[in-house]
Amino acid sequence: MRIVMKFGGTSMKDGNSILHCANLVKKFAENEIVVAVSAMAGVTDSLLQAAKKCYTEQSTGFIKMFIAELAKRHYDAVNTAVDESHRQRVIAHIDRLIDELEKVLLGISYLGELTKRSEDYILSFGERLSAPIFSAALLSIGVDSLALTGGDAGIVTDRNFGRAKPIPEVYTLIKSRLEPLLTIKHTVPVITGFIGATEGGSITTLGRGGSDLTATLIASAIDADEVWLWKEVDGVLTTDPKIVPEARVIPEISYQEAMELSHFGAKILHPRALEPVMLKRIPVRIKNTFNPEAPGTVISHSCESTKDIVKALSLVEKVAIVNISGAGFDFAEVMAEVFRRLANEGVNVIMLAQSSSELNLSIVVDESDVGRAMRPLKHMGNGTISVTKLEDVAVVSAVGAGMAGTPGVAGRIFSALGKNGVNVIMISQSCSEYNVSFAVSKADGKRAVKVLHDEFRLGDS
Ligand code: ADP
Ligand code: ASP
Ligand code: MG
User: Fold this and answer.
1) pTM of this prediction?
2) Can you point out the beta strands (E) in 386-455?
């Protein structure tokens, strides 16, 4: 079998966990395996915070401290996960990267400028530091391996820094780089998740959580039999266990359902992760690094028909609503213009609802995109169209293929919410009927999820 395995940040907590993950790879080493890794737990967040801090205040003292802590964390991991014969080479590699990062942070701090491009560059250090350690851990336990960056592996993207999209030729490029390593060298490539490079060689990132997408892109390019995403949960659960601890594992879920869940905020999967594997019908397993015997969840084509009405619930908390209203316009024309402008700005539209008797369009966007969404819309219709925003909003989505053709599901959802005093601000359901999504105030988001988890008895086995 040919398997692409991805190890997420929580699976890469420290040297012991990295060694544990390397041993999981070894256990399946009779297969052809490609590994994609995330940064060590919390490292991407800390790089982002450091970049922002350097941009707002000049503090060489902070940079020194940050760099020393980051270096120590990675040295410690090397000392635990890598045997002596491979240690020196990895440490030298880490030293070069740490040195480069320090210079970049100092540059940001002196210039007082942080572009999306430099932010991606800084974030890339998380995976660039972790992949060589993982690869050396494999070598230490007798599994031949080679560490590569996303760019080295052929993950070429556009220049949409922060949320870069792979170019159409990416599959051919990846195949040409990885195939010889698997079939001629018989080695396990360990690739930095989350990051790619533009055709000119600038480092890009695929959006937070993007190492899932790295894994599925590779799987599609090399025609893998399966993708295994190793995380710290037993699979895709009926909802985020951090919101509802009784959430239950879903053994099988369709691509479409899992896509709806991830699009509507379920952190378990990057929102675009299933796109590369769907056409080729490559199954994606979610497995628990710390409970590897558990069957996990398989996301595949073959479980399209399901009896579950509502199978799972997701919650996005950091969103806002942009409202566009006015009277006496051609609705289709205004819609076309609104979405053209949003697309030009690269705004991520999460959900929308409209009434067309008079123009009234509500669009849910990421909280961080509100400014970018409002700016180009402000001057539409020479000021006769009003554009307002509503912040502190959350979107809840109920997902399940069984909703299609089952009458009364929406009624059940909204009467349960009503009985529990949750006010619904906006509702959306497309004809596919794979999901019913609605917006509530942020303060009500988690409660809405709990109410529906109980209503549809999702915690019952
Ligand atoms: P990794 O870094 O390994 O990719 P993530 O942290 O990105 O892992 O994703 C796992 C997290 O996703 C879990 O800790 C859990 O809190 C969250 N999550 C959200 N929705 C779900 C869900 N439906 N099922 C399982 N986990 C979920
Ligand atoms: N390290 C990146 C992040 O924290 C990518 C990933 O973990 O998938 O978003
Ligand atoms: Mg993730």
Assistant:
1) 0.92
2) 386-399, 424-428, 435-441
